[in-house]
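Below is just one:
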Amino acid sequence: MIFYFSGTGNSLWAAEKLSISLNEELISISDAIKDNNYEYTLADDEMIGFVFPIYAWDAPKFVIDFIDKLKLKNCNANYTFAVSTCEANVGLTIKNLSKTLEYKCLKLNSGFSLLMPSNYNILYITKSENSIDSILDMAEQKLEEISTIIKKREDKIEVVLGQFAFLKTKLVNPLFIKYGLNTKKFFANEACVSCGLCERICPTNNIKLEGKPIWGSNCTQCLGCINRCPKQAIQYGKNSKDKPRYYNPRCK
């Protein structure tokens, strides 16, 4: 059983690859929360996996909140793994996740960071098509290695912590949660055709279509609305203006 969260396809693509390779069921955290579904029954000796992106050097609060409410029946020392997709490094994400899972009586047996193209175009310019292809080629190879480790049920942590990991996770991440999830800068310009895609894909049901989309206060900063808008009409102040959009081109 693999639980995943993805805004622009990176973690979904990785989770799909692992699901096929490991023959494990794939469950969307976003859909589970929308359906208020937190209870799952495990088959004997079934694996438990979590695949998610890194937001400011930690797992998205959205994901941690889900895990806090998660109830797994027939859980008995099941092999548990996590894969965190990131542009560069993950800070203390895996260490924090391990502590969170301990409260659920789960041991995190293995954890991995997986380098992927960034979607954070409210601060950066996304990479060129050639660079994206190169990064995804390497990620695909890494996923094969990760899958082999998981199939053997090895205890292994392979993550890129990055410099100043403690400061980034313990100081920057709380500031991101407090100030970075603000939705006041989101708007749809005149190119908007009111297709409603942003409303449908928002993992937190934070967008309502009232002629044009209106953002509430429950944002997780997945940036799916900006990057997946077919008309590139959604902006974040001036930060996203004229910047390329990103959705994993290999994602189904």
User: Anything to note?
Assistant: Helices lie at 10-22, 29-34, 61-69, 93-102, 129-151, 165-180, 197-201, 224-228. The radius of gyration is 18 Å. The chain is about 35% helix and 20% strand.
